[in-house]
C-alpha cells in the first residue's frame, strides 16, 4: 500500500475514510460536508448528479455521529457517504431513471440495496445521472444533461452508469452503486479509472431497481479500489425474498479474496485470454493502446504464477445482435407501465383526449429517442410471426454463449479481456451512430448474457486516458474476479508507486 | 336494436351447437399472487395495495406458493396432467386496470393440461374435456363515473380500484364441446355448477359468482347439421350466475341461427350478456386479433412442482362431489330423482352438514326442502344465504324430537333464529315457546273449554267422539299453540268421555 498524495478527504478511498471514522479522526458530518462542497464546486461542470439533498445528507450524517458518540455498535460502513445511480428507487427521494417521464416522482419505498446501505449507516449524497432507463454507453442519453469525464471534460464518462463513475472518479462520492445490463458498470468504470463489478445474475437483489432488461440487469459497486468494491458488494449482496430471481445461497466472502489477491497469490491460477475479444483476427475497432495495456496485464499475471492460455469462444461474435434483441424486447414490456396513469408525467389530460391518446402523448413526450428506438425494436421482435426469428433465436444464441463459457471454464479459472475496445471518446462523437455506440459494449455483453460475474480494474493509460481490464468468472465465483483484480491493482500500484486515481488528482492539482 | 331469434326447438332441426367455456376463479388465498397484500372482498378502494400490485417502477413479483398448490389441486381434481416445469408469461397490452402494462399469466406452458369433467343432464352423462388450467393475476377494477349504469360510454371520468389487481386467478379452459344438441345450455350450466362444487370442496375459492370470484366466458357456435366444420364462435362475457350461463347459450344459439338462416355471417366477437333481458350485445370485435406479444416472464423463476409432492397432493384430495353424491344417496337411501332434487335445490351440502350435526337425514331433508326452501324463496336468496346454520337446523329437529317443541313452535323458533335472536334453544327459552306440560295452567284451560261449550260436551257424551276436536282446538287457541295437542286430547277424554 502506498500513502495518499493528497490530504483532501475526497481523494481518499472508502476503506481509509472508514478507518478514520472509526478512529474518531474525522466525523461523518465533516466527511459529508467535504463531498457536498466538492459537488457544489464541480458538479456544475461534471454533471454527475441529478439530485443532491445537502440538508438531508448532513442530518443523516449528524445522526450517525450522534449514535457513534453515544457508544452505539456501528458497522464498518456507518457514516460513509455513498451515491446511488438514479435507477434505484429511494423512499421520498426523487427517482427518474434519467427520464422525463418520471420527473418529480418520489417513490414510496426503498430498493433493497438502498435499504441495506441505509441500514448499514451510510449517508446518501444523491442520485447520479445515467442514460435514460440505462439505455446507452455514454450517459449522453440522459433526458437531463450529459455527464463529463473528470479525466477530460470533453469526453464521455461511459454509461449508462456515467453519473456514478464521474462522481467517484471526480471525488464527488467515495463510492457508488451502478447497474449493469450489458456493461453499464464495467464500461464506465473502465472509462474513468475505477473498479466496477457486475455480480453474478441473482447475487444482488433487483428489487427497487427500475427495470431495463429483467434477465440481464444487475446492481453492483463502483469504487476507487478493489477492496472498496468488495466491501460495498458484500454490503448489498445476498438473498432477498422480494426478488424471486435472487439466488438463495450464502453471499461469497469477497474482502478475504481481495486480501489474498493483493498478496499476489496467483500460483496455479489458470487464466484464459478470449480470442474473440481483441485477440488475433478480432482487433477491428480496438484501440492499439487498449490492447497493449491488456497484453501487459496478462504478462503481469503470468509473472505472478498464473498459467495463461488463449481460449476461443466463437459464439461471442453473436453477442451484440442477441443482446440488442433480448434487452429491447424485455424493455418494451418493462416500460409499458409508464403510461401516465399512476405516477410521473401525464400529457393531454385536458378532457379533449381519449385514454389512448393520453397514454400515447405521455409516452411520446416522456421518452427520449433511444428509449423509443428500443421499444419499437423490442415490440417488433416479440410480435407474432417474428418472435421465433428474433427473440427466440436470440435466446438460442444466449445458450450458445453460455456453453462457450462452460467449456472454457472446464480449462481455466477466469477469462480476461479488455473491458471496452476503446478509451473514452469525445462527447457527441457517436450520438448519431447508434451502432458505433452499441459496439462499445462488445467485450462486456457475453458475461451479461450468460449471467456471469465480471469485474473491470484499471490497467493503465492509453492516450492519457484510463484502460480497463476485464476478469470474468463462473457463476457465483465473484470472489475470483476480486482476487485477480486485486492482484493486478496491487502489482500496478507497486510498479507505479501510487494509486491509479492519484494520477487524476495530480493532474487536477497541476 | 333487437336481434331476430329462431324458436329454440326449431334450431336443432338445422344446426348443431358447439360450446366451450373459459372459467376464471379467484383463489381464496390470504395474500395476492405476487405480493403480500390482503385479498379481502369489499375493502375500501386501493387499501389493499403495495408497490408490487400497483406496478410501481422497480417492484418485482414473487409467486404465491399457496396459489400454485391450489391450482395443482384443481388440476388434479379435473384429472389433468401436472407440468413438471413451466413458466409464467407476460401478456402485453395497455389498459388502466393492468398496472404493469402486461398481465402476468401463462401462455404455452400451463401448469395443468388434458383433464376432463363428467357432468350429468337428465340422466345422461356428458364428458367435458379440459384443455388447460393455468394461473394468472386478476386485473384492477374500473369504475366509470357520471354515465349510465357504470358503463364507460357517457362517463365523465373513471376511477380504478387496485384492490383486486394481483389476486390469484385460475383459468380453466374446456376444449370445444360438441354433441350436446338441444341440451347445450343445460350442459354448460351443469359444467359450471359441477366445477363450482369441486372448487368449493377443495376449499380453493369461495366461488361466488355474484361477487365475481367465479366468472364465466361462454363460447357458442352453430354449424349446419352434418357439416364437417364448426361454425364461427362468439365469446359471451359478463355471465354472472348459473342461470345466466344457460340463458346466454340459449340466446346465442337462437340469435346465430337467425343470422345463418338469413345467409348471414356470424362475426367472431366478444359479446356482453344482459341479465335483465337475457340477451347479448356485441363488444369489441376479435376479427383483428390483438397481438399480446407473449414471452416468458423474466422476473419469475420457473415453477417446477416436485413429482412426489404432486402425488401427495393427489392422495390428499378430499372426496369429490360425484363420489360424495353417490355415497350420500346410498347412505340416505334415496332414489336418483330424490337425490337430483336435493342437488338442484343446492341443498346437498346443507343437508349433509345438518345430518353431521345430529339430525336424521329425513328430518334434515324435510326442513331444507320444505320450510327453509319456502323462506329462501320468499326472501329471494339461495338456501345457503339464509341466516341459519345446519347446526341450528339440527338443533330444531332435536327439540321437536324430544317433544320440547312441536312443528308449529319450531317454525316460531326459526323466526327467532332468522331474526338473529340466537340458537333455537335460546329462542325457545326467550320467547317461552316450550310445549306446556300437564300444568295447572293447562288443566285450567281444559276445564274452561269444557265449561264454555256444554253443547259440544253433550255431543261427545252422546257418542259423537269426533266433536272432541273442537274442544282441542279451543284449548290450543287459549294456550297460543304451546300445548301438546295429544296431551290436550287425552286430558279432555279423561274429563268428558271418561266421566
TrEMBL record, chain A:
Entry annotated with the keyword Nucleotide-binding: yes
Residues passing through the membrane, by range: none
GO terms (BP aspect): translation
Superkingdom of the source species: Bacteria
A single GO molecular function term of this UniProt record: glutaminyl-tRNA synthase (glutamine-hydrolyzing) activity
GO CC terms in record: glutamyl-tRNA(Gln) amidotransferase complex
HAMAP family xref list: GatA
Protein name: Glutamyl-tRNA(Gln) amidotransferase subunit A
Automatic annotation (TrEMBL), chain B:
Record-linked SUPFAM superfamilies: GatB/YqeY motif (SSF89095), Glutamine synthetase/guanido kinase (SSF55931)
Record-linked PROSITE patterns: GATB
Organism superkingdom: Bacteria
Enzyme class: ligase
Keywords assigned by UniProt, alphabetized: ATP-binding, Ligase, Nucleotide-binding, Protein biosynthesis, Transferase
Domain Asn/Gln amidotransferase: 349-496
Gene Ontology biological-process annotations: glutaminyl-tRNAGln biosynthesis via transamidation; translation
Gene3D superfamilies (UniProt xref): 1.10.10.410
InterPro entries to which the protein is assigned, alphabetical: Asn/Gln-tRNA_amidoTrfase_suB/E, Asn/Gln-tRNA_Trfase_suB/E_cat, Asn/Gln_amidotransferase, Asn/Gln_tRNA_amidoTrase-B-like, GatB, GatB_Yqey_C_2, Gln-tRNA_amidoTrfase_suB_CS, Gln_synth/guanido_kin_cat_dom
Entry annotated with the keyword Transcription: no
Reactions it catalyzes: L-glutamyl-tRNA(Gln) + L-glutamine + ATP + H2O = L-glutaminyl-tRNA(Gln) + L-glutamate + ADP + phosphate + H(+); L-aspartyl-tRNA(Asn) + L-glutamine + ATP + H2O = L-asparaginyl-tRNA(Asn) + L-glutamate + ADP + phosphate + 2 H(+)
EC numbers, comma separated: 6.3.5.-
GO MF terms held by the record: asparaginyl-tRNA synthase (glutamine-hydrolyzing) activity; ATP binding; glutaminyl-tRNA synthase (glutamine-hydrolyzing) activity; transferase activity
Keyword Transferase in annotation: yes
Coiled-coil residue spans: none
Similarity comment: Belongs to the GatB/GatE family. GatB subfamily.
Quaternary context: Heterotrimer of A, B and C subunits.
Its job: Allows the formation of correctly charged Asn-tRNA(Asn) or Gln-tRNA(Gln) through the transamidation of misacylated Asp-tRNA(Asn) or Glu-tRNA(Gln) in organisms which lack either or both of asparaginyl-tRNA or glutaminyl-tRNA synthetases. The reaction takes place in the presence of glutamine and ATP through an activated phospho-Asp-tRNA(Asn) or phospho-Glu-tRNA(Gln).
Name by which UniProt lists this protein: Aspartyl/glutamyl-tRNA(Asn/Gln) amidotransferase subunit B
Organism encoding this protein: Geodermatophilus poikilotrophus
Gene from which this protein is expressed: gatB
Amino acid at each position: 500500500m502506498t500513502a495518499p498524495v493528497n490530504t483532501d478527504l475526497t481523494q481518499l478511498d472508502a476503506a481509509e475514510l472508514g478507518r478514520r471514522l472509526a478512529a474518531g479522526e474525522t466525523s461523518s458530518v465533516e466527511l459529508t460536508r467535504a463531498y457536498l462542497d466538492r459537488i457544489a464546486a464541480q458538479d456544475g461542470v461534471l454533471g454527475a448528479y441529478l439530485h443532491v439533498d445537502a440538508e438531508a445528507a448532513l442530518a443523516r450524517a449528524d445522526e450517525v455521529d450522534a449514535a457513534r458518540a453515544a457508544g452505539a455498535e456501528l458497522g464498518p460502513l456507518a457514516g460513509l457517504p455513498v451515491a446511488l445511480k438514479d435507477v434505484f428507487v429511494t423512499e421520498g427521494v426523487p427517482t427518474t431513471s434519467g427520464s422525463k417521464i418520471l420527473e418529480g416522482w418520489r417513490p414510496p419505498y426503498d430498493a433493497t440495496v438502498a435499504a441495506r446501505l441505509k441500514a448499514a449507516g451510510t449517508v446518501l449524497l444523491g442520485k447520479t445521472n445515467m442514460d435514460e432507463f440505462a439505455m446507452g454507453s455514454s450517459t449522453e442519453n440522459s433526458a437531463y444533461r450529459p455527464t463529463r469525464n473528470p479525466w477530460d471534460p470533453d469526453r464521455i464518462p461511459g454509461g449508462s452508469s456515467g453519473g456514478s463513475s464521474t462522481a467517484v472518479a471526480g471525488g464527488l462520492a467515495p463510492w457508488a452503486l451502478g447497474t449493469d445490463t450489458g456493461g453499464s458498470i464495467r464500461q464506465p468504470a473502465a472509462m474513468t479509472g475505477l473498479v466496477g463489478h457486475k455480480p453474478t445474475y441473482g447475487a444482488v437483489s433487483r428489487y427497487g431497481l427500475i427495470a431495463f432488461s429483467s434477465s440481464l440487469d444487475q446492481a453492483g459497486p463502483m469504487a476507487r479500489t478493489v477492496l472498496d468494491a468488495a466491501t460495498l458488494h458484500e454490503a448489498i449482496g445476498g438473498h432477498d425474498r422480494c426478488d424471486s430471481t435472487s439466488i438463495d445461497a450464502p453471499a461469497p466472502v469477497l474482502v478475504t479474496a481481495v486480501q489474498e489477491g493483493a498478496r499476489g497469490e496467483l500460483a496455479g491460477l489458470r487464466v484464459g485470454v478470449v480470442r474473440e475479444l481483441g485477440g488475433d483476427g478480432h482487433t477491428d475497432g480496438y484501440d492499439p493502446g487498449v490492447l497493449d495495456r491488456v497484453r501487459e496485464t496478462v504478462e503481469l499475471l503470468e509473472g505472478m504464477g498464473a498459467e495463461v492460455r488463449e481460449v476461443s469462444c466463437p459464439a461471442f461474435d453473436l453477442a451484440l445482435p442477441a443482446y440488442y434483441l433480448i434487452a429491447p424486447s424485455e424493455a418494451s414490456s418493462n416500460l409499458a407501465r409508464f403510461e401516465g396513469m399512476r405516477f410521473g408525467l401525464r400529457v393531454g389530460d385536458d378532457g379533449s383526449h381519449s385514454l389512448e391518446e393520453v397514454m400515447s402523448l405521455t409516452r411520446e413526450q416522456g421518452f427520449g429517442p433511444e428509449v423509443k428506438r428500443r421499444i419499437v425494436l423490442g415490440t417488433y421482435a416479440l410480435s407474432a410471426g417474428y418472435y421465433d426469428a428474433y427473440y427466440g433465436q436470440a435466446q438460442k444464441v444466449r445458450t450458445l454463449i453460455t456453453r462457450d463459457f462452460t467449456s472454457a471454464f472446464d480449462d481455466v479459472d477466469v477469462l480476461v479481456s479488455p473491458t471496452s475496445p476503446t478509451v473514452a471518446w469525445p462527447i457527441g462523437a457517436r450520438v448519431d451512430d447508434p451502432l458505433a455506440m452499441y459496439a462499445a459494449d462488445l467485450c462486456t455483453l457475453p458475461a451479461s448474457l450468460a449471467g456471469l460475474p465480471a469485474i473491470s480494474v484499471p490497467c493503465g493509460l492509453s492516450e492519457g486516458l484510463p484502460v480497463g481490464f476485464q476478469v470474468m468468472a463462473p457463476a457465483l465465483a465473484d470472489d475470483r474476479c476480486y482476487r485477480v483484480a486485486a492482484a493486478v491493482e496491487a502489482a500496478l500500484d507497486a510498479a507505479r508507486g501510487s494509486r491509479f486515481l492519484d494520477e487524476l488528482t495530480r493532474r487536477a492539482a497541476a | 336494436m333487437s336481434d331476430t331469434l329462431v324458436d329454440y326447438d326449431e334450431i336443432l332441426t338445422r344446426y348443431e351447437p358447439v360450446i366451450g367455456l373459459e372459467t376464471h376463479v379467484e383463489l381464496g388465498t390470504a395474500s395476492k399472487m405476487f405480493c403480500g397484500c390482503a385479498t379481502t372482498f369489499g375493502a375500501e378502494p386501493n387499501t389493499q395495495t403495495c408497490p408490487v400490485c400497483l406496478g410501481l417502477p422497480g417492484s418485482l413479483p414473487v409467486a404465491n406458493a399457496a396459489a400454485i398448490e391450489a391450482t395443482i389441486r384443481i388440476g388434479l381434481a379435473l384429472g389433468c396432467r401436472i407440468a413438471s416445469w413451466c413458466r409464467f408469461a407476460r401478456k402485453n397490452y395497455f389498459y388502466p386496470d393492468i398496472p404493469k402494462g402486461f398481465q402476468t399469466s401463462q401462455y404455452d406452458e400451463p401448469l395443468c393440461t388434458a383433464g376432463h369433467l363428467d357432468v350429468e343432464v337428465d340422466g345422461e352423462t356428458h364428458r367435458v374435456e379440459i384443455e388447460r388450467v393455468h394461473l394468472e393475476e386478476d386485473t384492477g377494477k374500473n369504475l366509470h363515473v357520471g354515465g349510465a349504469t357504470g358503463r364507460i360510454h357517457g362517463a365523465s371520468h373513471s376511477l380504478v380500484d387496485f384492490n383486486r389487481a394481483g389476486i390469484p386467478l385460475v383459468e380453466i379452459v374446456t376444449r370445444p364441446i360438441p354433441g350436446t344438441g338441444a341440451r347445450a345450455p343445460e350442459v354448460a350450466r351443469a359444467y359450471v355448477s359441477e366445477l363450482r362444487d369441486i372448487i368449493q370442496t377443495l376449499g380453493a375459492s369461495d366461488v361466488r359468482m355474484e361477487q365475481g370470484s367465479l366468472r364465466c366466458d361462454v363460447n357458442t357456435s352453430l354449424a349446419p347439421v352434418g357439416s364437417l366444420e364448426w361454425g364461427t364462435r362468439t365469446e359471451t362475457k359478463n355471465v354472472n350466475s348459473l342461470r345466466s350461463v344457460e340463458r346466454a347459450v340459449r340466446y346465442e344459439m337462437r340469435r346465430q341461427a337467425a343470422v345463418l338462416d338469413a345467409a348471414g355471417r356470424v362475426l367472431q366477437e366478444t359479446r356482453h350478456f344482459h341479465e335483465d333481458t337475457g340477451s347479448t350485445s356485441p363488444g369489441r370485435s376479435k376479427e383483428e386479433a390483438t397481438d399480446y406479444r407473449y414471452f416468458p416472464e423474466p422476473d419469475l423463476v420457473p415453477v417446477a412442482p416436485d413429482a412426489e409432492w404432486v402425488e401427495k397432493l393427489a392422495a390428499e384430495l378430499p372426496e369429490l362431489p360425484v363420489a360424495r353424491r353417490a355415497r350420500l344417496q346410498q347412505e340416505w337411501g334415496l332414489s336418483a330423482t330424490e337425490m337430483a332434487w336435493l342437488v338442484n335445490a343446492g341443498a346437498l351440502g346443507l343437508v349433509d352438514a345438518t345430518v353431521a350435526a345430529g339430525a336424521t337425514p329425513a328430518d334434515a331433508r324435510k326442513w331444507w326442502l320444505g320450510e327453509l326452501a319456502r323462506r329462501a324463496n320468499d326472501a329471494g336468496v339461495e338456501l345457503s344465504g339464509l341466516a341459519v346454520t345446519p347446526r341450528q337446523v339440527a338443533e330444531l329437529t332435536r327439540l321437536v324430537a324430544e317433544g320440547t317443541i312441536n312443528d308449529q313452535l319450531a317454525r316460531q323458533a326459526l323466526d327467532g333464529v332468522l331474526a338473529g335472536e340466537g340458537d333455537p334453544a335460546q329462542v325457545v327459552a326467550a320467547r317461552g315457546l316450550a310445549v306446556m306440560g300437564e300444568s295447572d295452567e293447562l288443566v285450567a284451560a281444559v276445564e274452561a273449554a269444557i265449561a264454555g261449550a256444554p253443547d259440544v260436551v253433550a255431543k261427545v257424551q252422546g257418542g259423537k267422539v269426533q266433536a272432541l276436536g273442537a274442544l282441542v282446538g279451543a284449548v290450543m287457541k287459549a294456550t297460543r299453540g304451546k300445548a301438546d295437542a295429544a296431551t290436550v286430547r287425552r286430558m279432555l277424554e279423561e274429563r268428558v268421555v271418561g266421566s
